[in-house]
Amino acid sequence: MAGASSSRSTPIRLAEVLQRCLDGAASLSRAYDHHQVMERVARSRAWRSLLVHVAYFLALSCAGYGLLSAIETRGPRPRAIDAFFTAVSAATVSSMSAVEMEVFSQGQLVVLTALMFLGGEVFVSLVGLASKWSRLRKHTTNRVGSHEEEIELGRRKASSDVFVDNEASSLTAVNGDVSSNGPVMMMAAVDAKRLRSLFFIVLGILGVVHVAGSVAVAGYIYYASPGGARRTLRGKSLDVWTFAVFTTVSTFSSCGFMPTNENMAVFSRDAPLQLLLVPQALVGNTLFPPLLAACVWAARRKELLEMMTSNSNKMQGGRRSFYYYHLMPARRCWMLAATVAAFVGVQVALVCGMEWDGAAFRGMTAWEKLVNAVFLAVNSRHTGESTVDLSTLAPAILVLFVVMMYLPPYTTWFPFEDNSTTTDYPSAESQGIRLLKTTVLSQLSYLAIFVIAICITERKKLKEDPLNFNVLSIIVEVVRQVTPCG
User: Fold this and answer.
1) What distance in Å separates the CA atoms of residue 227 and residue 214, rounded to the nearest whole number?
2) Among 34, 212, 258, 396, which is most exposed with the fewest C-beta within 10 angstroms?
């Protein structure tokens, strides 16, 4: 009997094992299908976002070109292709122009100001926040309306049933559906609240910086520098307020356009004006995340403070949590500010060390030289305004500026373990190992360092024999030495 029961239980166990294997394979297949669907949805969203951005900037450039062509110029009218190129440069904040800026009239300068403002990264991100907020509110409203209709239909059906059991089961089913959708709706409501708070904070930063910056520049020109900057603008037939607003918008959006032909070189001796523009260039580009984090902390918005501690593009509760690229945790903001200060310090030291008595700073006082060096260092990432002729600078400085322009604005030395789901370092690594890994630079960085060092040591030969000693030949030699080219 025991042998017979054992022989009968063996096929049953095999059947159970086989069923478990089939269930596991089915679950893996469903997971793979779900992953494929999520990948397709992510690619579709990325392409849709790219197309929306392309359409936005193309429409903005075409509208700007139309307005520039319709308004009369102060001098000879530029060619159509040059006007369109200038409009595209202003809309994409790339500050490349094929015509002299003093050709444009006051109305055309206003158009260029609007293009730079609408094409700035902060404003574009603000439009993205508004779009997400509107879409999320509409989605939440539709979900709430559909759930209320389901509850009402369930109650009517339950009241029309004769048996109490049917009434209880129908109410249980409806309540189960609502409770299952509750967490999703709650998270969507939290995201909508975050978006609303963040939208108004970014909008406030945008408004305060532009208004305060324009008023500060105009007030300085009117009252503190009536014989310097104001006389220069009067000689170029530029209105003070037009210049102030244009310069503030261009500096904050990291465009680099100036309404003068010489860019900021005409104000190279005006140190206070440069110091007014330096903070605008920083908060509009590399230091925008620390400024945003400080405003969030000052606003005491609990939902945004929680978001700062877990602002990573990860899945929460079965859905992707809201993510804003410019909002960073406090520790990363501190390290970003320290990195920016270190980069500026290195550039200022190199510029002052190599050009203190050079042609670029000839005729300036020590204070003016220092302020010009700071202005150049800040604008190398990535505003592009210049107070000197860059061709007069030493090759080592130009190479360093190129490296600074190549670096992304939020490049950060961060030797700490990240709290997000995707960490850069395994948890078993010690702090020393992580510090070493973050300190080791890329091969391209070392090439740039050696090129700059050689340009400094061979500075005399670069001036005396530019045919055999130039930056291009130094780059070729450095690359040839570190590669098996021979």
Assistant:
1) 19
2) 34
What is the C-alpha to C-alpha distance for residues 155 and 174, in angstroms, rounded to an integer?
Answer: 9
Using the 3D structure, point to which of 54, 85, 119 is the last residue of a domain: 119
Q: Which residue has the higher pLDDT, 471 or 444?
A: 471
Bridge partner list, 79: none
Spatial separation of the C-alpha atoms in residues 451 and 481, rounded to whole Å: 12
> Reduced to 3 states, what is the DSSP secondary structure of residue 300?
coil
223: DSSP letter: I
- Tens-digit pLDDT profile for residues 59-79: 999 999 999 999 999 988 899
Interval 373-395: pLDDT, tens? 999 999 998 888 999 999 899 99
Does 147 sit behind a cis peptide bond, omega within 30 degrees of 0 on the bond before it? Answer: no
Which CA distances in Å does 182 have to 177, 186, 321, 333, 407? 9, 6, 16, 35, 44
Contact criterion met (CB below 8 Å) for 344 and 377: yes
Of 67, 102, 119, which marks where a domain is finished?
119
DSSP string, 304-358: HHHHHHT-SS-EETTEEPP--TT---HHHHHHHHHHHHHHHHHHHHHHHHHHTTS
Q: By C-alpha distance, which of 212, 217, 231 is closest to 273?
A: 217
The C-alpha atoms of residue 134 and residue 139 are separated, in whole angstroms, by 9
74: CATH: 1.10.287
- Categorise residue 300: left if φ over 0, alpha if ψ from -120 to 50, beta otherwise: left
Question: What's the mean pLDDT in 460-471?
Answer: 84
Q: Total domain count for the chain?
A: 2
